[in-house]
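Methods, example record. To illustrate the input and output format used throughout this study, we show the complete record for Phosphonate ABC transporter ATP-binding protein. The sequence lines were provided to the predictor; the line carrying structure tokens was produced by it.
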Amino acid sequence: MLAPSPPLSIRGLFKEYVPGKPVLRGLDLDVEAEGITAIIGPSGTGKSTLLRCINRLVEPTSGEIRLHGENLAALRGRALRLARRRIGMVFQEYNLVERLSVMENVLCGRLGHVALWRVFLRRYPQADIDRAFALLDAVGLPEHATRRADALSGGQRQRVGIARALMQRPDLLLADEPTSSLDPRTAVEVLELLARLTGEVGVPVLLNIHNVELARRFARRVIGLSEGAVIYDGPPDGLRDAHLRAIYGGEDWL
Ligand SMILES: Nc1ncnc2c1ncn2[C@@H]1O[C@H](COP(=O)(O)OP(=O)(O)OP(=O)(O)O)[C@@H](O)[C@H]1O
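The corresponding predicted structure is encoded as:
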């Protein structure tokens, strides 16, 4: 029997911001249906560019990015907007609307689905409101629904960011350094939450992360990038010092 095809499959992805200077150099990568796939690699190696090519915040120069078979790299207009609704994103700096309540920020995850007049009049369908409350419960913030986002701590903000992304009912969740602004304990708590909740709803996660130990601890699979190419692609326990030297360069820091 044939193995099921991975939900996200990237082939030959190139990205040049400056002609002749590719940041991503013909990247091939599959993201499996379950768990967290962590991307590690030095600063400037193209990790954020990769995530932003997937949701088309950045235009790929060439290559294919297939989500359940559909080539995202080729979509335009309405088709692209519909595809983006299926991809949740969690950001390093949370990207909440600071002056809105926690509840409204979570409901923002439904923006692509709900009629604009409802958003404008703040009249979301009851089913969405019920789901937003359930998600706030799940991320441990049930009593914070009416607080303004700018009154929350970093860890609480990122919990709201996770709830907002899950509100989309995404097919794929992209997380770009979601814990780099958090203290070590809060970072672990946020990743535990991300792993648990995405595991419960069966959403695969592609996670950019600088902290190799956290990548090892939470990912099912680690991809090591260097200069826009894949240096390591395998399970966390197969990642050796030699791989880390090849990914990050140098000898004396390990
Ligand atoms: N909008 C842009 N215009 C021009 N160059 C860019 C742009 N965005 C990123 N770059 C360049 O592309 C390269 C890769 O950047 P990217 O942010 O993807 O790396 P990264 O691996 O995510 O780095 P970090 O870990 O520091 O976030 C860098 O050299 C960066 O300067």
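Annotations derived from this record:
The mean pLDDT is 92.
Residues 94-164 form one domain.
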